[in-house]
Amino acid sequence: MSFLSNLIDYITARGLQNEDLTVVFPNKRAAFYLREQFKKVHKGNVWMPQMLSIEEAVSQWSGIQLADSVDLLFELIAIDSSLGHQGNSITTFGSMANQMAKDFDEVDQYAVDARHLFSYIYEEKKIGTWHPGEQIKPREQAYLDFFRQLKDYYDQLRQHLSSQGKGYYGMITRALSELDAEALRQKTEGRHILFAGFNALTPTEQKIIDTLYKNGQAEVVWDFDRYYVDDPLNEAGVFARQYIRKDAPWKPTEFSDDLLHSKKEIHLVEATGNTIQAKALQSLLQVDPENDATIILADEELLIPVLNSIPDDDRHQHINVSMGYPLSQTALSNMVSEFFTLHRKGRKVGDRGWYIWPILRLLDLEVVKVIFTKEELEQIIQYQEKIREESLFVFDEATFNSICTSPDLQQFMKLIVTDKGQPMDADGLLDVLINLMRFIAYKIQSKGESNIFLLNQVSETGKAVNRLKNILTRYQRYVHDLDELEVLYRLINRNIAIKLNSSHTDGLQVMGILETRNLDFDSFYMVGVNEGVLPTDKSNNSFIPFLIRKECGLPDYKEKQAVYAYHFYRLLQRANRMHFIYNGNGNDSGGEPSRFLMQLQHELAMRNPGITIVHESFINRANNDEGPSLLTAQKHASDLRDLAPTSLSSYISCSLKYFLRYIMKISDEHLDESAQENDLGTVIHETLQQLYSDHLNTVIDYDRLTKVIEPTLQSKLDQAIKRHYKQGLSNVGFNYLNQMGLNDMLKKYLKFEKDWVKNHDLVITHVEHELQHDVVIDGHTFHLKGTADRIDQSNGMVRIIDYKTGTVKNDYVKVPKQVECLDDIPEKALQLMMYKYLYLKQHPETDPDTVTASIFGLRYDQIVFDLKVDNPDLSGHFMETMDQLLSELLPELVDESIPYQQTSDPEGKPCKICDFRGICVNNAREALLEDDH
Asked: Which of 153, 396, 435, 733 is most enclosed, with most CB atoms within 10 A?
């Protein structure tokens, strides 16, 4: 029987009168399930007991309103100002105030002597800043003053809240715990109180229970198993053993024996990567015969991938999600963030109007793609192309309206640039934001599509903005600019969750670990069961040092991890079949299975022969049995054209990226300010090409360089800029910095050339020269080609040069001693080797030892990064070895038995700079914009 069923039997057996009974749970969810259980047990009309969470109970009994984090923030900001810290703002003080509130809450929950504690902390900080014989520095003095005044913050916060009839949780429980039996009886109206399913009670909660119990008002029903209570090393029983040692009258005396004697089938499922865990869950649900399943998220960040992976079939139509989705992680929150950025940073470009890029970022957001029609989105694309083609950097309303003729698009643009670039105050900005939410809601409803989730985002965002407006009426003096307004909005926003469908106990259930408290499931799937997630890591942010916490009886990370250990083992007590899915990718954070899973294998299973543990590994295969996969279907081509060094490097680093870019011809059309950075590299290449094009095959000495070539540099640069930027380069924003970088790189380059020709002869033979060669293997022709930025001759050597405006390091161009295949060669080194190889194929009479290849790193003072080959085969028999290495690699490109697949290093550099990061199975994070489930 489940714990809740046992609880109903307990209430019935004890003859407790429901109308006079209050059942208190650790959380609200258990109360909801108990109500449903009562309905099933009692078919007719029945008077149910009052059911409350512990937070609801103490607030109700005390008559004190529970203050939220925003209340506490502004109270502490006001206190900070009263203590003379006029320079502190929401931006600088917000995170400190948030941490102070958490620490004060713990101080009161654990009934710590505040004066002693804060004095202790101050003395410890004094010792840490003590330098014998040296005067204390002003910054250190300010640091000490803060800790010296912690007690003042604490006292004044309690006083301010008390005067308003408010309090934080610890403050309320401390006040109740200090009442005598009669006062507490009056507060609870003499009701009989049943505390059900608790584990980690704080000292003040224990004191409340103790007083009520001794007064004959309270009973405690525990849910512990003998396995972890009797084992002094098992974390799950830490708190139960504490209560037993205290010999409290309400201590646990009865324990289940399920973990050691009931049969259990446990599946440990390894999945490579976070998103693949959701795919593994999907595969398991598809073969599960049960209609009702329970999915528990150890890692709550997997909520969206998990929801998107639930099979879309008749058995999984009824989904109940009992955990909220953070508003701060939604697509709409991203839009609000960009809106703030626009108004904080997207001011006017001189007197010309709005800077274009913050506006374009807003137009490129997912919310925009959802709310507007296909025709309206096509108009936005046309407008973006106009910006790209003409290199515009100032928003012009007439230009926008001439392309985006939809009245709704024009209305949207008027909302986001409503003030014509003039600064707006906080109230005005919030009014615009409210109107923007109304507009989005109107667009969603006008499309006639069911998108409840996005509408809920709009609703919750509107509530957050209204809350912010109400706060400003009281605390206007603390919000000085839009930066502080945005910080405040984020503080409110991060505590809001979008409520999903959780109105039934039947159907497929999705919940977090904390929502499972007091609930039992015959079978369940737990996802994200990794160390650092379950249990959480050892981080314990606090102004109270670790040793002082221990001395004063405050909890540390061990107690917090023990809480999660209990939740984990309690779920196992009555379950018969369990699947634990974990990320087995060691390259990911959390790539190690939770130690709880190890304990199941090496401890629990050894003592209970009825436990069967099955190890499984889920592989997301590109192919299936239904026919040729998309990822192999394109490999039938009889030849491959234009295999450049960059495309070969792409195939080696990640064949899926090669497939998407070079086979499917997918390009990144994302329009952003940084997108024009690529054009700047092209500008430099074209400038240097034109600089030398009239001086090929002639000796370039110092006089020619300084008197003939250098004076034409500015005109060549201006011509290149004009070809790519019709409006020129902007003198504000990101591209202004790029323009400065461009000028700096050209100056460094010319300085290097001048120094070089003083001591070396130089003849440039080619600029932007195409190198090519056909390789035929097993009837397949592979056309290898590449474009050398420059080929020259200097001191008897042929130099093949590749200009780079990005990052270059010596390791990038170094070929290691051990080379078994081309995969072993760094990407940039391979590109240089391919240039050399192609050049020698075109000039077979040339001695390979007289040809070198280099990268000119234009952002560096040293400029030249020469190819360095430590491998003896490549250094001694370059062409033969390259022929062999290519003959081993190239057939893979047409081998249909080898599918294209993503790199095995999803956290490495290839993924971090990949255009397809958002759609690759390694990194997919689907936004829940559609209410599919």
From this structure: 153
Contact 148, 122 (CB under 8 A): yes
Question: In whole angstroms, what separates CA 343 from the centre of its chain?
Answer: 25
Torsion of CA 772, 778, 779, 781, to 10 degrees: -20
Measured CA to CA, the distance from residue 378 to residue 712 in angstroms comes to 43
Does the structure show a pLDDT above 50 at 266?
yes
Range with the lowest mean pLDDT among 12-21, 356-365, 613-622? 613-622
Beta bridge partners of 868: 814
3-state secondary structure of 835: helix
Q: What are phi and psi of 218, to 5 degrees?
A: -130, 150
How many residues in total does the chain contain?
A: 933
Give the predicted TM-score (pTM) of the model.
Answer: 0.73
What is the band of 926 on the pLDDT scale with cuts at 50, 70, 90? very low
For every residue of 319-357, DSSP letters joined together read EEE-SPEEGGGSHHHHHHHHHHHHHHH--BSTTS-BBHH
Can you give the pLDDT at residue 905? 58
Residue 652, burial from CB neighbour count under 10 angstroms (0-12, 13-18, 19+): buried
The whole-number pLDDT of residue 502 equals 64
Buried (b) or exposed (e) across 528-556, using 16+ Cβ within 10 A?
bbbbebbbeeeebebbbeeebbeebebbe
CA distances from 251 to 200, 221, 226, 430 (A): 13, 10, 14, 53
The answer to whether residues 724 and 776 touch, using CB atoms and an 8 Å cutoff, is no
Whether 653 contacts 714, CB under 8 Å: no
Amino acid, res. 118: F
Contact 39, 165 (CB under 8 A): no
d(CA 78, CA 82): 6
Q: Is residue 596 within 8 Å of residue 565, measured between CB atoms?
A: yes
Average per-residue pLDDT in the chain?
Answer: 85
pLDDT of amino acid 638: 45
Pseudo-torsion of CA 153, 157, 158, 162, nearest 10°?
160
- For the stretch 536-594, pLDDT in tens is 877 778 999 999 999 999 998 889 999 999 999 999 999 999 999 998 875 444 568 99
What is the C-alpha separation between 739 and 742, in angstroms, rounded?
5
pLDDT score of 173: 97
Query: Which residues are CB-neighbours of 17 under 8 A, at least 6 positions away?
Result: 192
In 372-481, alpha helices (H): 374-390, 397-403, 407-416, 426-446, 452-475
Sheet strands (E) in 584-720: 611-618, 639-643
User: What is the radius of gyration, based on Cα positions, of the chain?
Assistant: 34
What pLDDT shows up at residue 680?
A: 74
Residues 405 and 369: beta-carbon distance below 8 Å: no
pLDDT value at residue 655: 80
CA atoms of 748 and 86, how far apart (whole Å): 47
- The answer to whether 70 touches 491, Cβ cutoff 8 Å, is yes
What backbone torsions phi and psi does residue 726 show, to the nearest 5 degrees? -60, -30
Q: Which of 173-177, 541-545, 728-732, 779-783 has the lowest mean pLDDT?
A: 728-732
Return d(Cα 157, Cα 811) in angstroms, integer.
57
> Cα–Cα distance between 797 and 716 in angstroms, integer?
28
- Give the amino acid at 458: V
Closest CA to 481 of 89, 97, 88: 89
Cα–Cα dist 187/22, whole Å? 13
Q: What is the pLDDT at residue 87?
A: 61
User: Identity (one letter) of the amino acid at 171?
Assistant: M
**527 contacts 298 by C-beta, under 8 angstroms:** yes
Range 184-221 burial, b when 16+ CB lie within 10 A, else e: bbebbeebbbbbbbbbbbbbbbbbbbbbbbeeebbbbb
CA–CA dist 336, 367 (Å, integer):
11
Amino acid letter for position 126: K
- Our CA dihedral for 31, 35, 40, 42, rounded to 10 degrees, sits at 130
